[in-house]
Specification:
617 residues, alpha/beta, 14 helices, 25% helix
Length: 617
């Protein structure tokens, strides 16, 4: 008979009869030692009750709203067997590899016939919800037996935000670290050809738009003169400054960097193809942070330089008279804002029935309205069947209910998403499971099915965001160093740096309706904000979404200037389990756009004085 045991509330000080506000596990879940079971909230703090040992939950003794005290039984668990290779005692697996006796065998990879089930961060909010994906685990090959060119305790593949964070944190924790990056400079796609250069150009576009807008209140600057070389130089200077900082920090931490493309050749070795040859690196632990690349659609002449992906668009080779943007997601719309402000006639086509799929339609509408005023043509439900490259331009063939009248363009930007690089690393030789789409499944500690190899960032699943990768990289490094930690972030904010900006976090209103959640939606229009009126940007609003049963905030969306800066407060509010009164009673400075957050909460409470709402009957 299986050994069962009681998982109890530990000593929680003087608190008694503390409410259970969240259930973190369910019957049938396999939990690790120290994994959270339930969340309690006293008048002093919010705390998680950890499992005292690893096992499988066979009975829950509490439900939401119950109160518990020290010694009360939370759940009954079937104890994990010693040597259990499943989701059992991950804390034990977190011991540093260096602690193993000299000459000890490395952890064996599962046989090729085995299916590996590991928890993945849930798409959309990054919470490792314990969902599993059965992926066949390949059989690892034997070591090369060759003398390595480099040896290290920790190898990190990829120097993007997640990778360099993982490498720096590993070094800070005392692990001898090597960082491999395919680009000549650190920072990966985000810093070199993504987030940072795009924001430099978006700022320039914002200045152009604001200068024109100033005419509305009596200040005229005349027609702008754009020095494209100087603008490009400014963008490159911003990137260079950030790269210099990363390079300096790598040297300060004694992180050894290698430039080249890495491929696994065994569970503890990679070969790195450098410009001058190949280098063999042997490692004890590894964090894969190889990121993703733009999707290349079929039917496009990719050998023609006039067809661009996001990287090409940021090179700013010229300002095309006619630009077609294929894909109305965040990247496509950001680039549409840049090129429109610089003087291009921009057409955006999106296959779905709304721009920026994933965001609530009401958040996107103010952006769509302003794009239309600025001359950007948008066609929804439209597909580009093919593009023919001719001397006089790129000729597009469209399909859909609404198609552009113009079919000839000087340049075409394709921005329809990114695909993970998990299938390009030879990970199967290390025994690492990879999905057909190139994702690498991981558990709540970012471990792959091979215990000493971790994966983070774009290649472990959506959302593909730099700030998600950063937190995952830090977590993976800390677990590799022996710390007992796991993924606990409830939400991950998303931001489109368009003009106006759009930001959201947690449950969207669309998602709440689809799931049948009982929510309250409080929306504060920026037309009632003194700050927004003063700067002439009243198109925005702040929307908060509350669980009607608890009055806790579970989601938020903001559209307007600086929305990306404002959304952080609401991400924190969700993490802290704030109620409407917690936000509404927090004094926000006046006059600011941040006031709209507090006022939206006051709408939920029914205490708003800056707007009039009839009393509910």
């Amino acid at each position: 008979m299986a050994n069962t045991l009681e998982l109890k509330v530990p000593d929680i000080g003087d608190d008694a009869d503390v409410p259970v506000i969240e259930l973190l596990v369910k019957v049938g879940d396999t939990v690790a030692k120290d994994q959270g079971l339930v969340t309690l909230e006293s008048d002093k703090a919010t705390m998680e009750v950890p499992a005292s040992t690893a096992g499988k939950i066979i009975e829950l003794r509490v439900k939401l709203g119950d109160t518990v005290s020290a010694g009360d039984v939370i759940a009954i668990a079937e104890a994990a067997e010693v040597g259990d290779s499943g989701q059992g005692d991950r804390a034990a697996e977190a011991k540093p590899a260096a602690a193993a006796p000299a000459g000890a065998a490395k952890p064996a990879a599962p046989a090729a016939s085995e299916a590996v089930e590991v928890a993945q961060p849930a798409a959309g909010n990054g919470v490792a919800a314990g969902t599993s994906a059965a992926v066949p685990a390949p059989t690892a090959v034997s070591g090369t037996g060759r003398k390595p060119d480099l040896e290290c305790r920790m190898l990190v593949l990829g120097a993007g935000p997640g990778g360099y964070t993982a490498a720096f944190r590993s070094a800070d924790l005392g692990l001898d670290t090597v960082l491999v990056e395919r680009y000549e400079s650190l920072g990966g796609v985000c810093l070199n050809v993504g987030c940072i250069p795009s924001k430099a150009l978006l700022h320039a576009a914002e200045v152009l738009v604001e200068a024109k807008h100033a005419e509305d209140f009596g200040i005229s600057f005349g027609a702008p003169k754009i020095d494209l070389d100087k603008l490009r130089g400014h963008k490159d200077k911003v990137v260079g400054q950030m790269v210099k900082g990363l390079t300096g920090m790598a040297k300060q931490r004694k992180v050894r960097t290698v430039t080249g493309t890495a491929t696994f050749v065994s569970p503890n070795e990679v070969e790195v193809r450098e410009s001058e040859g190949t280098k063999l690196i042997r490692f004890e632990q590894c964090i894969i942070a190889a990121g993703s690349q733009p999707v290349k659609l079929a039917g496009f002449p990719w050998d023609d330089a006039r067809v661009m992906d996001s990287t090409d668009a940021l090179m700013l080779i010229d300002i095309p008279k006619q630009l077609l943007v294929v894909g109305g997601g965040i990247i496509g719309l950001e680039m549409a804002c840049v090129y429109s402000a610089l003087g291009s006639e921009v057409t955006v086509v999106e296959f779905m029935d709304q721009l920026m799929p994933g965001a609530d339609k009401d958040l996107v509408k103010p952006l769509a309205d302003l794009l239309k005023k600025r001359g950007v043509v948008v066609h929804l439900g439209c597909k580009v069947a093919k593009v023919d490259a001719k001397k006089d331009g790129l000729h597009a063939t469209f399909e859909g209910a609404s198609v552009p009248a113009n079919t000839k363009y000087d340049r075409v930007l394709v921005s329809v998403g990114r695909t993970p690089n998990g299938g390009k690393l030879g990970a199967e030789k290390a025994g690492v499971a990879v999905t057909e789409r190139g994702f690498i499944p991981v558990d709540r500690q970012m471990r792959t099915n091979v215990p000493h190899i971790f994966a983070i960032g774009d290649l472990v699943g959506q959302p593909m965001l730099a700030h998600k990768a950063t937190h995952e990289g830090k977590l993976a490094a800390e677990v590799a160093a022996g710390e007992k930690k796991e993924w606990v972030a409830r939400v991950i904010p998303s931001v489109a740096y368009t003009d106006p900006e759009i930001a959201w976090v947690g449950v969207t209103e669309t998602e709440a309706k689809a799931k049948g959640l009982h929510v309250g939606v409080a929306k504060f229009p920026w037309a009632a904000s003194g700050r927004a009126v003063g700067i002439g940007r009243t198109e925005g609003f702040t929307k908060l979404i509350f669980d009607e049963a608890t009055d806790r905030i579970i989601g938020a969306g903001i559209v307007g200037v600086h929305a990306g800066d404002l959304i952080a407060e609401l991400a924190l509010a969700i993490e802290m389990g704030c109620e409407a009164s917690d936000i509404g009673h927090t004094i926000h400075p006046h006059p600011t756009l941040s006031e709209s957050v507090g006022m939206a909460a006051e709408i939920q409470e029914g205490s708003i004085t800056d707007l009039y709402f009839p009393k509910k009957k």
